[in-house]
Amino acid sequence: KTEHTRTLTLIYAHTRTQEHLHMLTLTLILIRTQTHTHTHTHTYIHTHTSTLTHKNTYTRLHLHTHSFIHTRTHIWSHGQSKDGT
């Protein structure tokens, strides 16, 4: 039984101007744990930050936990999904 953990961090910044200034920062943290059962567990942490001109700055934190059995075709099984405002 061998466990292997890999961490991948992807930062994506998107700027859009249309009456408002939308700052989108995407932070993707991928943690994969592999066991002898070939069952992979993926954990995505999605941070969405929007800055509006006429409103206060609010931060929405999306926590998505996905787990699927690693086959030729990926079969996804959605777990938690928290949305905080």
In short:
This protein has strands at 4-18, 20-34, 39-50, 58-69, 75-84. The chain has 85 residues and is mostly beta strands.
How would you sum up this structure, described in words?
- By secondary structure, this protein is mainly β.
- It has one domain.
- The chain has strands spanning 4-18, 20-34, 39-50, 58-69, 75-84.
- It has a three-stranded antiparallel sheet with strand order 3-4-5, with no helix packed on it. A two-stranded antiparallel ribbon has the order 1-2.
- It is elongated and about 55 Å long.
- Mean pLDDT is 43; it is low at 1-52 and 56-81.
Notable traits:
0% helix, single chain, three-stranded antiparallel β-sheet, two-stranded antiparallel ribbon, 85 residues, elongated, 75% strand, disordered N terminus, mainly beta
How are the SSEs placed, and which strands pair?
Layout: E1 4-18, E2 20-34, E3 39-50, E4 58-69, E5 75-84
Antiparallel strand pairs: 1-2, 3-4, 4-5
